[in-house]
Amino acid sequence: MSIVDHSAFEIAQLVRSGELSAAEVTEAALERINAVDGRPGTLDPGEISAEDKTKIHAFITLTAERARKQAAAVDQKLANGEDPGPLAGVPFTSKDIFCVEGTPSTAASRILANFVAPYTATPVARMESAGAIMLGKVNLDEFAYGSSSESSAFQPAPRNPWDTSRVPGGSSGGSAASVASGECALSLGTDTAGSVRQPAAFCGVVGVKPTYGRVSRYGLIAFGSSLDCPGPVARDIIDAALALNAISGADPHDSTAAAIPVPDYTAQLQESVSGMRIGLSPEYFRIIYINSETGEIDTQPITPEIEKSVLESANHLAKMGAEIVENVAMPHTRYGIPTYFVISRVEAASNLHRFDGVKYGYRTPDAVQDLTEMYRRSRGQAFGPQPKLRILMGMYVSAAQYSAQYYNRALKVRTLIRRDFEQAFDPQGQYRVHALLTPTTPTTAFPIGDLYGDSVLMQYADQFTVPANHAGVPGISLPAGLDAHGLPIGIQLLGPDFSEARLLQLGRAYEIATQDAEWRKRKPAVLAA
Amino acid sequence: MTDQITPELFQHLVQLGAMELKPDEAEYIRHQLNNQLKAINELAAIPLDDNTPPAAHGVPYTPEMRPALRQDEWRPEPDPQKILAQAPQIAENYIVVPEIPHTDL
Hints:
The complex is a heterodimer.
Chain A: H1 8-16, H2 22-36, E1 59-62, H3 64-79, E2 91-95, H4 122-129, E3 133-138, H5 173-180, E4 186-191, H6 197-203, E5 206-209, E6 229-234, H7 237-247, E7 277-279, E8 286-290, E9 297-301, H8 304-319, E10 323-325, H9 336-352, H10 371-382, H11 385-398, H12 407-425, E11 435-439, H13 455-459, H14 466-471, E12 475-482, E13 488-494, H15 500-513, H16 525-528
Parallel strand pairs in A: 2-3, 2-4, 7-10, 7-11
Antiparallel strand pairs in A: 1-3, 4-6, 5-6, 5-12, 8-9, 11-13, 12-13
Helix pairs in contact in A: 2-3, 5-6, 7-15, 9-11, 9-12
Chain B: H1 7-16, H2 23-40, H3 80-84, E1 90-91, E2 94-95
Antiparallel strand pairs in B: 1-2
């Protein structure tokens, strides 16, 4: 077992007590990356080799020297008798949608391939000031637009550490893959429709989407500004709580970061869950989607093994004294995706207009007549299909003649989705649940290439995660077993605004209840090899 | 079912979006847009009344949660060269762009 297979909590303890240096941890992490990652994603990858297909490819940019300097600074602090911070020496990665000063910050897009960020995003800065060591920037779907990480302009795209023929999920696929394979103990991702929770579920790790406003968005390359939530990926709940402690809180650089005190998210992790009311909703056990070829509405139950895992998890919590409330009505769940198709596209289109080849990023090398031709060529050449789709859809559904029918209507449906949650969590209401327990995803990780190209089916991978983004409420995904293919299954806990501490407490209770389970002894295939 | 986004409407959107598309790429994107609209059209069936206000965001944004705005004070950028260095083309600290379309009055 390498040092990097320890939890962030253990690593920080060992470093803080002087039993291990931050430098040693960093070298161990770099060694692991060298063993399992393969070549980083690039714009001109050439052919994907047989060897490529056995690697993780989490990284776009490895910042080894920067990490070594940070580790030396942590070790120096310890030598001086100063406090190196609660995450001293803990290696982490950042989704390449976070700006980090002096590093390429690409959003996995050709249009930002040459962009070197002049400042650092608040969540990254806070991790670093807590003593954590950033190893580099990890791959994602281009601009976070996807659920498989396949749409990155930087190939090879990340692969699932449990089975490298499958996707790691997305858009924070590099984050989840890097944590699952022990390249780092923590990663920062962003969740706009499930982009932290879905890859966490696919890779068998913990992913937290905090309440909107809990974590500052300063320094994020924006996607859907009313939906985007930065959040941690970790291997267990304690580590996720430590990371959330580090990154949460108000920020003078982001007026939407809530001025609500940050509790110590580790404080109540060992407390009893007795008396807590946990809701199960039938709407989270089937997916309803439009067959885009026939136009018919199809209903499909979720994979039976996933359903079984969720119900078993409920039983575990019940045995610990929680009360299970069945049949919680969440009738607008199915509209999460159509609503998202509208709202996120309008916000994405608005955010993408800034990429014009003028101030930074890609500018066409072609000779052009005038400024507008430069815009058209630069954007045409450097945006991939996903940003183009989203720009065009965003403009269509918000155009003056269509906005009442689409955008304004979607914003009202968003209110209905929010009300479903308010009614479920209302302390005086019919259900009075403290949290909802659901599957994170309708399936486990799908094979690379299976959904890629079908933008409608791909979006429905987020059906159980997107409602929390519309409503703004927090959610966590945590591992709850393996399916018959040995692929991780994720369960999700959703709670009212700013209830992260309670969700983590429930998650920790579940971890304790299942700590001796056979599946917990299994390791991702890349580590077994 | 006829496509909601016809080739003509699509061309108009592409023009507004300021993106030059290759023909095969354009056809793929238009097809995907029309498929997505079939999903979006599900929204039309949801009953909405006057008591359903639009939600620009999920979490209510109360005055207590809102951090005080900082003072509107001018501060010099510590290192403007770092920002300018990102521009594709500069000359004497100006960002250079191709001819801006204009009409002589």
